[in-house]
Amino acid sequence: MRILIVDDEKLTRDGLIANINWKALSFDQIDQADDGINAIQIALKHPPNVLLTDVRMPRMDGIELVDNILKLYPDCSVIFMSGYSDKEYLKAAIKFRAIRYVEKPIDPSEIMDALKQSIQTVLQHQAQQDSNVLYAKEAVSRFAQRLTHNGYDMKSDTLIDDAVLRGSINNSTIFTTCILRIISPYNVIVDRSNLSSYLENFDKQIAKWHLNEIHFIKNDSLIVLHIYGNERPEESVVSKIGTYIKSVIPIELNYFITFGKTVTGPSKVFDSYNSAAILLQSSFFFDYGSILIHKSSPQSVSSIYPHEFLNDFTEAIREKNFLRARELVETLYRSLKNNKTLLTNVIKDMYYKAFLQINSVQYDLKLQTENAVSDSESMLDNITNCIILNELHQMLLAKIDRFEEKLQSTPKETSTIFLIRDYISNHYGDYSLSIKDISDHVRLSFSYLCTVFKTETGETLNQYITNYRIEKAKQLLSDPRNKIIEVSSRVGYADNNYFGKIFKKIVGITPSEYREKELGRNTSFYVLKKK
């Protein structure tokens, strides 16, 4: 807190400064002047919280000084000192709301009481100011949020008055809504309660282009800014605003910046906000840190679903042609980047199926982990949590890399076991698949075949066939388009009831229960209509 002591007698000033414990009163800055004119010069450089001044001084007396100081700083607290007790000066002290009129010679206890009261008054004024600022700030935030409602009518809205904005916003005001979405990586902690701090000097920056702004925080991750002025901003200005926002966001954060279309009048702000929100949805196809600006005539792009990808990718994975698999994934990525009309969930579903194909082949080759179910759940969570297409793309490439590494590091099984597994993977859907069929294929006797397989793998051939069919059934049941009776048929069971018994024996639940459980996890990708 700062105090300015004004008295033409140096002895008085020095005595006050030397004999009062200013630090105990919370004063950390003490200025002094010998008359009113010098006091004003000091006050212009260092605004005082408290003014302790003599009344009668040369050049400018205390009454005139206080008049000038209160015009500059209305909340400054005043204490008069004087050896004269005439009524006119007392009336002046009352007029200027002086806390205390202290007579000379000064009584230390009396001046201490006056200073304490002055401090209390200053603190009350500061608290009231803080409260007023906070109230106005909250009103501005609520008003900014209200502008995003369709059909907003400014005439009947008193909130604009609480926000003290009616003088600067009218039906001719030009608005452009900007949305800043903050996405914090898993290893970065963000104080979401203080997101506005990133834009602390934003209003000063855009004032260069004769623009103002109001904003609000939505869902702890979005800052919605309504940038407004009397003239339509050029696209180059909008781009510069986006670049400035980028410059103030911490480098460790991921984010997107979108600008909606420019509109006229508060009632049209919804259109600007809505177009910015739509752009934000398309941010899935862009990299973090992108600035997306609404175009009045966007280029029309046809929605082409890459139907052949999954078939070609599955074939490449089954043939262990990893170079071909990566080429297909890269081609898919480029195709999707240039085709922004596909729904995000459709794309995630496509990638999810690609991951499942890799898991399926790994299972066939006994490369799948023991925690196959939890691995699938984790994979689904990771896909669901992907914010941008590139994250999906990198995840799938990494999955292919891990598959290839596993394959290369796994001891090669005998050619006989490989032929057996390969034959089963191609014929597990045949109702009539038998051990005799397999023995004929590998040219071994029935008994020798069973002995070799059990010795090499640790399980009987019948167990392997049954487990293989059930794993395939689980994959098919995860897709709601496959009926349960069709699933049993596709995995080699002519009798649906028998399939159900075997499935429950191995999995622990019925096929329908398993489907319900799986679809509960996959709601990000499928929408089911209950009949």
Automatic annotation (TrEMBL):
What InterPro entries does the record tag this protein with? CheY-like_superfamily (IPR011006), Homeodomain-like_sf (IPR009057), HptR (IPR051552), HTH_AraC (IPR018060), HTH_AraC-typ_CS (IPR018062), Sig_transdc_resp-reg_receiver (IPR001789), Tscrpt_reg_AraC-type_HTH (IPR020449)
**Which domain of life does this protein belong to?**
Bacteria
Q: Please indicate if the UniProt record lists Transferase as a keyword.
A: no
Which Gene3D superfamilies does the record cross-reference, listed alphabetically? 3.40.50.2300, Homeodomain-like
The answer to keyword Isomerase applying to this record is no
Instruction: Name a Pfam family for this protein.
Output: Response_reg
Domain HTH araC/xylS-type: residue ranges? 418-517
Q: Which residues form the Response regulatory domain?
A: 2-119
For this UniProt record, the keywords arranged alphabetically read as follows:
Cytoplasm, DNA-binding, Phosphoprotein, Transcription, Transcription regulation, Two-component regulatory system
Modified residue annotations for 4-aspartylphosphate: 54
A Gene Ontology molecular function term of the record: sequence-specific DNA binding
The entry's cellular-component GO terms read: cytoplasm
Q: Which PROSITE patterns match?
A: HTH_ARAC_FAMILY_1, HTH_ARAC_FAMILY_2, RESPONSE_REGULATORY
Which subcellular locations apply to this protein? Answer: Cytoplasm
Q: Name one process (GO BP) from the record.
A: phosphorelay signal transduction system
User: Function of this protein?
Assistant: May play the central regulatory role in sporulation. It may be an element of the effector pathway responsible for the activation of sporulation genes in response to nutritional stress. Spo0A may act in concert with spo0H (a sigma factor) to control the expression of some genes that are critical to the sporulation process.
* Name this protein carries in UniProt: Stage 0 sporulation protein A homolog
Species source reads Lachnoclostridium phytofermentans (strain ATCC 700394 / DSM 18823 / ISDg)
Source organism phylogeny: Bacteria, Bacillati, Bacillota, Clostridia, Lachnospirales
